[in-house]
Amino acid sequence: MDVEIHRSARKHGVADADLLHAATRYLVAFALDDENPRRELRLGPDRSGNLLEIVVLLLDDGTELIIYAMRMRPKYWGLLP
How many domains, the chain? Predict the structure, then answer.
């Protein structure tokens, strides 16, 4: 699995290492649509344990492209296990 970061994912100032940590060690993931490429919402911790919301494109070649990231908003607490 290859994980890449699109420049749009850096909009909210989350460090690249934290983006990668949350995107690969997520607690829960949800499909956002059936489009191609598929988009997935992932909720996971950064390196300090702060929860992030991440949107990842799942490309046909197996690459995961992080396109959005920010601190997890309260509306997502109910989705956590």
Answer: 1
